[in-house]
Amino acid sequence: VQLVESGGGLVQAGGSLRLSCAASGFSLGDSVTGWFRQAPGKEREAISFINTRDDDIFYVPSVRGRFTISTDATKNTVYLQMNSLKLEDAAIYYCAKGPVATTIEKFYRTWGQGTQVTVSS
Predict the structure, then answer these.
(1) Which pLDDT score, from 0 to 100, does residue 29 have?
(2) pLDDT digits 0-9 by tens, 64-114
(3) Secondary structure letter of residue 109 according to DSSP
(4) Integer Cα distance of 104 and 117 in angstroms
(5) Largest pairwise CA distance in the chain
(6) Exposed (0-12), middle (13-18) or buried (19+): which is 39, by Cβ within 10 Å?
(7) What span, in angstroms and rounded, lies between the C-alpha atoms of 48 and 12?
(8) Pure H helices in 38-119
(9) 1 pLDDT band (50/70/90 cuts)?
(10) Strand partners, 10
(11) What CA–CA distances, in Å, run from 25 to 64, 74, 116?
(12) Which of 25-29, 43-47, 48-52, 56-60 has the lowest mean pLDDT?
């Protein structure tokens, strides 16, 4: 039972990346998948989640309009399309699964290992 993130890398400011969160051993359906990030010296923060039960989607203001969360049930994968990347988007990005549509970390029970996103000027 695990989540595996991929798709991170080095990108210039203004560029795009698509992160993937692939689940194995369980289904991402009928649950909430959240994306979090942690920049150096900062606390981890929730940036988006999707509730596959009702297609409820949330974004924090700092990424709204630039990031898009989506799911592919056939691949049991959740994606985070990140456009117009800024220097301040550089962080380790984590996906997590839980039963509650919330930005509160403690409600997410299964976490991936993270993928590094680096944004250069």
Answers:
(1) 82
(2) 999 999 999 999 999 999 999 999 999 999 999 999 999 999 999 999 999
(3) -
(4) 22
(5) 40
(6) middle
(7) 22
(8) none
(9) confident
(10) 118
(11) 31, 14, 24
(12) 25-29
Report the SS3 class of residue 107: helix
CA distance 39 to 74: 32
Given the DSSP bridges, would you call strands 9-12 and 115-120 parallel, antiparallel or unpaired? parallel
Q: Which of 5-14, 26-35, 52-61 has the lowest mean pLDDT?
A: 26-35
Residue 30, classed as helix, strand or coil, is: coil
Tokens coding 87: 């220097």
Structural tokens at position 68: 């898009």
What's the mean pLDDT when you consider all of the chain?
A: 96
Residue 15 contacts residue 85 (beta carbons within 8 Å): yes
CA 119 to chain centre: 16
